[in-house]
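Q: For a teaching handout, I want to show students what a protein-ligand complex looks like in token form. Below are the inputs, and the small molecule is tryptophan. Please produce the holo structure.
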Amino acid sequence: MNQSSPQKNNRPSWSGQFAFIIAAAASAIGLGNIWRFPYLAAQYGGGIFLLIYILMTVTLGFTLMTTEVAIGRRTKLSAMKAFSSERKSWGLLGWIVTLVPVVIVPYYCVIGGWITKYILAYVFDQKMEAVVDGATTMVSVSQGDFFTAFITHPWQPVAFGSFFILFSMWLIFSGVKNGIERSNKIMMPILLILSVVICAFSLMQPGSFEGLKYYLLPNFKEFVADGRFDFVRLCKTCVGAMGQMFYSLSLAMGIMITYGSYMRKENSIERSVRRIEILDTLVAVLAGLMIIPVAYALGNGPEVMQKSGPGLMFVALPGVFEKMVVYGINFGRIMGAVMFLLLFFAAVTSSVSLLETVVASIRDSTGLSRRASGIVTLVYTLLLAVPSALGYGKGFLGGEVIPGMTFLDFSDYITNNVMMPIAAFFTCIFVSRVVGTRFVEEEVEHGGYSFKARGFYRVMCRWVAPVLMLVIFVTFVLAGLGKIKI
Ligand code: TRP
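A: Here is the structure, written as tokens, with tryptophan included.
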């Protein structure tokens, strides 16, 4: 398949429904599921977040993914042009969704750089200099201080992040990309199997059971403060879950519109969407099982959980690997190396797809050649990765850009919690109030398929989704501005 073809009618297409599902799932499954989902779930109260996340996926997620794939397949255009092709005045929405990957990609690659560092640390048993209890010592990767030592290092995060960017760009422009995507079909199942093994180990650690309960059992007391129902906290959790759901399913950023534009007319949109959702959610839930219970055990309880952030996976996984001693043989190092290598693959396929989207958007909007667009993408990604990479340190570009957030946190926050909900809201409005839900329904029913959830879709797209998103989002913004307190 050739993604760069801009023509309207003779677009190449995925060879079948299975190919579409695999391609879309490969874009969806990435660091969002394995790195981001567990730390958000840990932060927002465990079971209650999981419950809200799943509810969001089957309602909003289903509605939005169906909408995006249908718009893409019907218009045969990428997001930037799909909205304006129907209504000129809606071009701005195309721009907003197109901008999301542009903001995501630099920090996504920085996390890819962290993973690269961990592969090397396991393979070569690298140590880092860290200050532990006031004294400078060398720590190995299995110690929690290793992570802090690495992300606060004055140049290493930049070096690894840049490597990751250059590597991804090289894959795109050297043509090796297809090979990588094919190898993904082998890597992904291995990643899943290994994750199950790691889960078993982490659940065997003393103290993990409490963590398992924290992760799986919803605790509604999370939303009670001083004996009263805390609506703001509920909305904050919903915004967190919603943003994560969009991110993880690659929604509200034009990706699924582009993917839909390559989907064959004779395949079922409804069935494909369900399968992608199930696969993506399974991987996220599994990653949570692998990381949260053991992090809970290592960190002693819920208070630590609620403070967890982007480093959770990088501290919890080495904590499990260290315990992997069977009959006196330590499998931890090899496990660590293999797991981070597989994560590297998952991250690289997503970063390649993100970068390619950005290249295509620059090309479509400026008319530059593919190569020139690639250079522009490379330069700005490298430049914006630097503040993300150095934000956790104390030196140059270190520290918070707004209170409580480094540049990486901020880029993540602004895309997931602000831009994507806005894009999703207006996509629903576009369909329900401008072109009409028939626009999507007809496409889903194309080829004689019955749209089983049609009634549900209509109600969701016209009323429930926009109202829900509006209420949650407005409360969240007002609370953020300190306008309301409960
Ligand atoms: N959904 C991907 C993940 O879970 C991340 C992602 C966001 C992505 N936007 C994308 C991947 C665009 C490919 C293309 O990690």
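A: Two things your students might notice: The two ends are 53 Å apart (CA to CA). Residues 27-28, 30-33, 101, 104, 247-248, 250, 253, 255, 350, 353-354 surround tryptophan (CB under 6 Å).
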